[in-house]
Amino acid sequence: MGPELVIAGWFASAAIGQLIGLAFSYIKEHPVWLRMKKELKKLHAALERIKAVVEKVEKLEIIDDCTPAEEAWLWQLKDAVDEANDVLDELEYYKLEEDVKSGAEKVRATASNYTKKFMRSAAFVFKHSMRLKKKLKRAVKNLVHVADSAGDFLKLHNPSNEHEKRQKQIITRRESGCLLNEEVFGREKEKEKIVGWLKKDGSGEHESGAKENVTVLPIVGMAGMGKTTLAQLVYGDDYVRGIFDQRMWVCVSNNFDVTVIMKKIIRAANITDRQAEELSTLQEILKEKLQCNKFLLVLDDVWNDGDRKKWEDLLAPFKNGKQGSKILLTTRLNSVAEIIGKVMEGTEKPMNLQGIEWSEYLSLFNKHVFDGVNAGDHEKLLLIGEQIAKKLGRSPLLAKIVGGMLNYNLSFEFWNEVLENSIFNSIQNEDFKPILRLSYIHLSPQLQCCFRYCSIFSQDYLFEKDELVRMWMAAGLIQQSDEDKKRRPEDIGGEYFDSLLRKSFFNWAMHWVGMTYYVIHDLLHEMVCSVSKNECLEVDYSKPKPRDIPTTLHHLSIMVDDPLVLRKVPQLKNLHTLVLRIYGNGHGWDDILNKVLKRFKNLRVLKLELSVTCKRGSLDAIGDLKHLRYLHLGNDISQLPKSMYKLFHLQTIIALHLNPSTKGISKVMRSLINLRHLILPLEVIHTIAEIGKLTSLQELDEFHGKHLSHSNTWRSENAPSLWK
């Protein structure tokens, strides 16, 4: 059996539609193309045929048992569409360049601009027309070539009548920003037991009988049973807040790096006046902070059950905590609880979490199934729903995920189809992936695409809604239909996120310094990584055996501690997102950074997180990224690249540590006429002259130290779109 390939969310037909409009505008408006008018008309007709082919392919959404030859053809199709899109985007770039040079600062680029007002400047025509004409011709030629070879593929995979019928049965409901209220079902007894344990203050009062100041309680249970949710319920309890001097929550996950975990704990403890890299120093910082405090530490999603020395190093600073201090941890493995017991004498008998009681479970399931509708109006579905719920092993995760899937297709036929699906048999073997994949498949193509994008971030990554939406926008994942053209893409992307949150593809994680963060359940993360592995990928080169990078990749996140390792990254002609995290010390980064950026000229999103200091010139290649929409310069990057003024497509700049003495900031900003989000230190904002001329600006935020302040927001009568 061949692999599965995801089609949903490619939006190739929309891109080709834009290309059709562009070709037509050239035929109609621009004299320089007259010698190619006949050929352009042929290409216009060919594009209509290609669009028809692509629309059929997109209806397939996911292709099972895809042969290597078929998969290669599909990627050729996507590459051809991306190439056409890049030509389209470059044409717009040069038009924006001419507008900036001519002082047309009120230009605002939207998707509809692609089919309007191109090449009005004679200088533009003569400077770029021949080269871009060749690129356009080659792009369309490649599309025609791929489309001509589509016949055999569509014979094998043409959408059947049954598929079309099922699509028509789906009851579509507009994605809403209304979120489910956070409510936990069926865990009151477990919560009371844990809170009772937390109340015990004197040594020797716990079940283990050990006379230790600090005691540990492991919560053990299979995936999807609600271990993290239960821990959150306890952690956020008002009474619990009041009995501890210090509360800390850290997600450990499967990368048990003691130094990294220790740094997370220090951040969670709000220790900001001391920093260190050495483990011994980190241990001393924590020991000093906690020895006079009664603390609660939650270690969530723990996997390490084989390296006792690492556990001893991690827990050493906590053994001298004030009497009554507690450590609560969640894990799937009893063996983790066993090794903790060997390291910490005050370790209690694990709480083994099982499925919740049936009545509570059915209430949880129905809450998600009938969210936003009256269950009484769907009496036929109630009985089927109960039968489906009985197949879910009383897993709270599956109640939310499957419930959300059913909620968006309230047809008897679809629910009955789900009920009779043999996929539920996998639960008996504690394998939830087939059911999670089924729920993923029934997301809209837009939501599938946005959720796949999240797989470039590591397991248990904390997502901030606005940041993610800005990245989705820049990567071209937010599609504005004709009826949505008057709406801001930020609002559409926000609805995408809220819908995924309501369907439990995201979960609330924490509030920190005025911000709300969300996380993807580790089972969902594993599932989406397997679905998107040829399109979106995270690679950690600090590990012994990093993943291979496929050349089809569009979105990539890299963690690296050696500059030479970056040479292993292959040429990725259609890479649109690069998140580069550089850790460790050393030299040689300045030269390699420019070389890396020069290899990926089609980037739309660039996020740099560096723990090394780089010279200003090391990032000059950023100015050649004509398609760039999102630029995040973090950590030790204190200077803007001199070439940034050429990024006419740029929508978002985040430079958290920019030096106020940097020269030329105002000049750079004046040319960024598509800028929508500007997040800089307060001292830098004050140095920017004529900021009101940035008429596309939607957000202007001050960055204070370690958090964003939204209380002081700049407004300008010359920037009417400024809203936040």
UniProtKB/TrEMBL annotation:
Residues 456-528 form the Disease resistance protein winged helix domain. GO terms for molecular function: ADP binding. Keywords: Leucine-rich repeat, Membrane, Nucleotide-binding, Plant defense, Repeat, Transmembrane, Transmembrane helix. Residues 595-706 form the Disease resistance R13L4/SHOC-2-like LRR domain. Residues 25-104 form the Disease resistance N-terminal domain. Residues 188-371 form the NB-ARC domain. InterPro entries: Apaf_helical (IPR042197), Disease_R_plants (IPR044974), LRR_dom_sf (IPR032675), LRR_R13L4/SHOC2-like (IPR055414), NB-ARC (IPR002182), P-loop_NTPase (IPR027417), Rx_N (IPR041118), WH-like_DNA-bd_sf (IPR036388). It comes from the Eukaryota. The chain crosses the membrane at residues 6-27. GO terms for biological process: defense response to other organism. Belongs to the disease resistance NB-LRR family. PANTHER family: DISEASE RESISTANCE PROTEIN RP, OS12G0204800 PROTEIN. This is Putative disease resistance protein RGA4.
